[in-house]
UniProtKB/TrEMBL annotation:
<protein>
    <submittedName>
        <fullName>Uncharacterized protein</fullName>
    </submittedName>
</protein>
<feature type="coiled-coil region">
    <location>
        <begin position="117"/>
        <end position="144"/>
    </location>
</feature>
<dbReference type="Pfam" id="PF05600">
    <property type="entry name" value="CDK5RAP3"/>
</dbReference>
<dbReference type="GO" id="GO:0012505">
    <property type="term" value="C:endomembrane system"/>
</dbReference>
<dbReference type="GO" id="GO:0007346">
    <property type="term" value="P:regulation of mitotic cell cycle"/>
</dbReference>
<feature type="compositionally biased region" description="Low complexity">
    <location>
        <begin position="58"/>
        <end position="67"/>
    </location>
</feature>
<feature type="region of interest" description="Disordered">
    <location>
        <begin position="45"/>
        <end position="79"/>
    </location>
</feature>
<comment type="similarity">
    <text>Belongs to the CDK5RAP3 family.</text>
</comment>
<keyword id="KW-0175">Coiled coil</keyword>
<dbReference type="InterPro" id="IPR008491">
    <property type="entry name" value="CDK5RAP3"/>
</dbReference>
Amino acid sequence: VDQAASVERSGVSLADDSVRVRYINELMELMAFLERRKVLTQSSGMGLGGESMQGVASSSSSSSSSSKRAADGEDLESVPVETLGSHVTVVKEALETLQSERAIQWIQLGGKSQKLFDRVVRNIDEHRRQVDKLSESVEVTRRRRDQMTHELASTAHEISAITRTTKSLQRLVEADLSTLFNNRTVNVMGDINML
């Protein structure tokens, strides 16, 4: 983003065909370099052939030679094949984006209509705020659900104890009433039998 902003401030724009073509060429060169590095890494395990890679490195442009460093400052020689593959994928996606007709239309529109880009930026910011609010709501709801689950689990034991006590009281009342009615069987009716 900072690089894009500095490019815009310097007056260089992707709407300029020559600038866009230069970026596309550099990305293609970088992709070829990474694919070659990936093939050599695969063919020799983790070690790389020094001579052949020096030839590839010397033929690459300054942008691709500066990209020989991995994200954490590692030499590209020590980067695993999977990481090289992911770098190739990212470069391919960037190329596809730069070459897509939709991106070219947006770039050309942006050069002509700053208001359009401002409106798109406002819409994206608004959507981001809505996503943030929804994420907060989801988090609050999740916390409430966890709290209610905990409360339900803690009250389940209490409810079970109350149910047992109520059932034993029901049996005692039925026994006491039975003695009043010449030891006939007495059943207390009602919702208590639903427990």
